[in-house]
Amino acid sequence: MNEHVQNTVLVVLIGVFALAGALVSGAPIVYAHEISVVLTLIAVALGYRIYLHGIRSLFHGGITAQLFATIAIFISVIAGLVLTSGVSVFGTAEAVGYLAASAIVVFIIQAGMTIEGYIIHRTRGALEKLIKMSPITARVRREGREIEVPIDDVKVGEIVLIKPGDKIPVDGQVLSGYSTVNQATITGESIPVKKKAGDRTFAGTLNENGALELKVERIGDDTTLAHLIQLVEEAQEKKAPIQNIADRFTTYFLPIMAIVSTSVFLASYFTLGFEIALARTVTVLLVACPCALSIAVPVAVAGTIGNASMNAIIIKGGTHIEKLKDVNCVAFDKTGTLTAGKPKVVEVKTFGKYSEADVVKYAAIAEKFSEHPLSMAVLDKATEMHLDIDDPKNFKTVPGRGVEAQYGNKSILIGRRMGEGAISKEADGLLEQVESEGKTAIPVILDKQMIGVVVVADTVRENSLEAISRLKSIGVKTAMITGDNTQTAKSIAGQLGVDEYYAELLPEQKVEIIKKLKEGHVVAMVGDGVNDAPALANSDVGFAMGAAGSDVAVETADVALLGDDLTKVEYSISLSRKAFSKMKGNIVYAFIWNIIALSLAGFGVLTPVLAVVLAEAGCISVVVNSALLLLNKPKAFVKGSGKIA
Amino acid sequence: MTKQKTTLNIHRIDCTGCKACAADYQADNLKHAIARLNGVSNIKVDDITGRVVVEFDNAKIILSKITDRLEKLGYHLM
Known about the structure:
Number of helices of chain A: 23
Strand order of the largest sheet of chain B: 1-3-2
Helix content of chain A: 40-55%
Radius of gyration of chain B: 12 Å
Shape of chain B: globular
Structural class of chain B: alpha+beta
Strand content of chain B: 25-35%
Number of helices of chain B: 2
Number of strands of chain A: 22
Shape of chain A: elongated
Structural class of chain A: alpha+beta
Oligomer: heterodimer
Radius of gyration of chain A: 35 Å
């Protein structure tokens, strides 16, 4: 039976006995009061967890609220049994009344403990969801047979078979098969990724329509998913600096409470008599609740980190939440971060009677066997246009100049320096212009005649523009830093509307720029986490993007974006701002709540039952308020909403 | 299968003494994090004394991996 169930059962039992006690006391039976007292005492005894905790803490050098509650309840019970009636202690109406109040107090504390425990447990819900993503069995091939074995028995190097619709149980490499896999668990991106032989898969991802055979590379605690879970666990345990303020309050809280309750007792004893003094002291002890102070921050931290992890963001501890909230400048790396980092055909210009398809076709034939990134871009374009590309007859790359090929009885020349003489003044002007925009122009020359130009450029990611504009909308300055040439940088910076750009930088110069930006700003740097490691390390908050699968990137970053969605940068900042204002609000609220409740108790306005209701309400509202962070959601990114001019 | 039971003592989890105590909360986190390790079959955490009792399978996990994890989670062994 888990703890929540045990606690709930206790609450119910305490409630039942307390109620029975109250009902019996008024019933027309013999020994009604005696039976009532016994029933009520059982209810009080069922609060043993509170007393155990309180008494044990005393022996281990801590004074806790449970100890106060224990003392308060003990005093009330003794008062109920001994002090209210002179002779016959057992079985008077007053005794019943005193005891009933104690039982209700025990009931409320136990119920409060249960509810708070449950809500706190729920803040870990995000993590539990991740954990459940990993299947507990795997189908392996052993001695030519397929058998299903528990995941703990799978060995590295074995072959695991994945059927359509299965969750993938291990990190592995595809040996054969073809399928699409939904990797949202790891990368946060719900568009399935194609997997073929040689590709890697992650444990906890969902295979969709094909069957796959995987060679096991990592299992159990070593998988990417397990590492992510461990990171989140560690992050949730790391205290936020604001916690120190709360801790300082709670350190003084208990000694102060001891002094306050003693003073209240003495003051009332000499003015109002023993009985009232006792009642007030009990009330003071019950109203004291450092809980709200001590739990407010950890629950908010766990809620924030849990929320982030559901959105494929790993924030590596409370400290970073506090730093993130102050970020007012975000510097992005360009290649591979704001842009896809992979050249793509962005335009095809044609001359004479030739169509776009002709130009791409001849270019693709000539470049079919080249592995240059620009050739890949041309071939991708041909595939996209559904063109059949024949093999060239002769094929020769001329390093630094271009490609030369024969196709049938035609000659194809690709590249600017290949076609001297074939490029007219007018065409030359066009090429100049394209290159001034930071793009690469590839002239296609067929039989010494220029038939068109393929324009290739690194393209900005679909969500980059949206990411930049969201950051601007929350008042954050944006900058781009890149090793690329000024022309390209200027063009991309213009398209995205970043406030500043710095180009032609070596890695150490990137660090200098970050340092410069830090004069007057709290700077976050977004990069791929590997090449940009020095700049990330020098920023106030380092974001690594596309970090899934790269332990280095996840390790070096303060915040790891598991997928490629840059809008998550703004979300991380906004979430942290919200989280921090909750932490601060909770501490102030809990502090004021305690002062008011204590004053009311000290001056006798509260009854013990009301006191405990107030204390629990204070705690629960703080815990709930913090846990609500878990429900925060990012603005949806509408595909295509980020229009690129 | 070689079952082993070990008692570790960590520095007492800060118990600042609330009713749904922060220490209970931390103990809960710690319990889950360790229980999830491959080969750990049972764990009990006493948030007041800081005593952690772990039952694990010797063949599947070594003790240092468990203590490493504890340290990484921010609990220092005594």
